[in-house]
Request: fold
Amino acid sequence: MALNKEFLTSVFEGIEKPDDRIEKVLKEYEADVTGLKVNRDQVLTENKGYKEKLEKLTADYGTEKTGFQKRIEELETKIKSSGSEETKAFYEAEKKQIQDMYAAKLTDAEKAIGQHKAAHDELYSEYLKVLKNTELDRAMDAFTNLDPGLKNVLRDVFWARYQFDFQNVEGERKLLNKEFRNISDTLTAFVGTDEGKRFILSSSTGGGAPGSASVKPPVKNPFVKGQENLTEQGRLFKENPTLFARLKAEAGASG
Reply:
């Protein structure tokens, strides 16, 4: 079942300002489905650039700091071996001058590295999100019987249930969960469960997708902050995961 205005009109029947809510849901859906794919190459390229610049900044800082420490050690040796108070005072003054100059220089370098690292970490988070969704797209495309109208709902459910990150396995970095399963294997196992079977197209005549039967929407959105209704949320999740996800998104609920 496609997620379009006609479908959402039936979903939001009886709810205040349905046109505004339908427009919001469709925009969010479009961003979720196509946004990452459109920006994928840009995000990957920018992440590589950030990483390379961060490595250069860190290397330059290390070289600068090593040079500073070596110069200070040389002056301290001269101070200790000075034959007169005048010579000792001269080297101590030079040492203080270098310390003052390098203190400001190294502080600026540390600040630049910190700012760039923060920007890199933010982009890396988006980079990881792109990679994970790319892998999930491939895994979902491998299933010929997934309900296309529920793929975005499946995506939300899958990421809410499973966490993936890079792990080193025999010298290779792989995206795995805590059980060392990749995204494809995890999705295969999930759609074999009772919960996952809801996202598989029904083989019965005219039955449509499991869990997509017409369900009268609640008078009030059970996800609205301050008016949460866990019983109603549970009912919707079991009877109509599409409506469940849409109302959740419309209310801006997380988790």
